Amino acid sequence: MAKITFIGLGNMGGPMAANLLKAGHQVTVFDLSQAAVEALVADGARTAGSARDAAVGAECVITMLPAGQHVEAVYLGEDGLLAALPQGTLVIDSSTIAPETARDVAEAARARGLAFMDAPVSGGVGGARAGTLTFICGGEADTFERVRPILEGMGKNIFHAGPHGSGQVAKICNNMLLAILMTGTSEALALGVRNGLDPAVLSEIMKQSSGGNWALNVYNPWPGVMDGVPASRGYEGGFLVKLMAKDLGLAFDNAVRNQAAIPMGSLARNLFQLHAGQGNEDLDFSSIQRLYHPDAGA
Ligand code: NAD
């Protein structure tokens, strides 16, 4: 079992770190939120006063932070973690960030003799809690073999997408598709309800028909149709609108950089940005349903 330092204990990182404890690892945690740290300490984690102190003696450091600027702040610069870790330490970043940022951190890590892997995840808070996340890794093949047993403590499907940054590219493509299918599902449900259909009946029909998709199967956006999903608890928790808007911004920037056309992704980005700007940025992303039907579920 490994000595692991876990930094970033939010909606995803908290349950991921808890699963590493359950898998028998010695886990030291750090987050800017004291409440988040205390929840993990109650589960048996150690802690320290800073990210740098928490990483002393670690064989592996894992970060699960909101966005690229947080990842850069934690790892880079004179006060950053990379400058403090001994050679050979495994460094895994599971945040969703730009591939370019992941490559910059990977290069800085390589220069210090550290093994870096971008390993963003899919599967949501439910997958994080159940330990069934999909990890999408970018980095060298031998590093992939070293990180795999650790990631298996938190996930079910562990993919190696290619060299540094590839994990982030695959993750950005996936989330662009997720945003498109969640908005499409919300649009279809709103149209059906405007025609007097019951959203639960319509959901079941589409689930068993050619419109079936992940949102209908496990993350229905209409309040009350499915138990245990954010839509049925006022869109609290889950995957925040502001994080989806960030990911769609990453897809958009990437498309511009690569001269790729993403008309559906661009529309989804605008819809989520509009929704975020209307005061919904801290709700779960399935609340995009309200953009189509403001009193959905009322
Ligand atoms: P979150 O906002 O719930 O958690 C982020 C945590 O990082 C917070 O607890 C915050 O206090 C902490 N943090 C920020 N800066 C820090 C710093 N400098 N040092 C220590 N801690 C710091 O976000 P989340 O939903 O857990 O998502 C984390 C990442 O995973 C994001 O990049 C997101 O896009 C991605 N992601 C989220 C989901 C999901 O369903 N929520 C699914 C897949 C991927």
From TrEMBL:
Annotated active site: K171
Keyword terms: Branched-chain amino acid catabolism, NAD, Oxidoreductase
Keyword Oxidoreductase: yes
GO MF terms, alphabetically ordered: 3-hydroxyisobutyrate dehydrogenase activity; NAD binding; NADP binding
Domain 3-hydroxyisobutyrate dehydrogenase-like NAD-binding: 165-292
Entry coiled-coil feature ranges: none
GO biological process, one term: L-valine catabolic process
Superkingdom of origin organism: Bacteria
Catalytic activity: 3-hydroxy-2-methylpropanoate + NAD(+) = 2-methyl-3-oxopropanoate + NADH + H(+)
Database matches in InterPro entries: 3-OH-isobutyrate_DH-rel_CS, 6-PGluconate_DH-like_C_sf, 6PGD_dom2, 6PGDH_NADP-bd, HIBADH, HIBADH-like_NADP-bd, HIBADH-related, NAD(P)-bd_dom_sf
Keyword Transmembrane applies: no
EC number: 1.1.1.31
Domain 6-phosphogluconate dehydrogenase NADP-binding: from-to ranges: 3-162
Pathway named in the protein's UniProt entry: Amino-acid degradation; L-valine degradation
Record family assignment: Belongs to the HIBADH-related family.
NCBIfam families (alphabetical): HIBADH
Protein name per the record: 3-hydroxyisobutyrate dehydrogenase
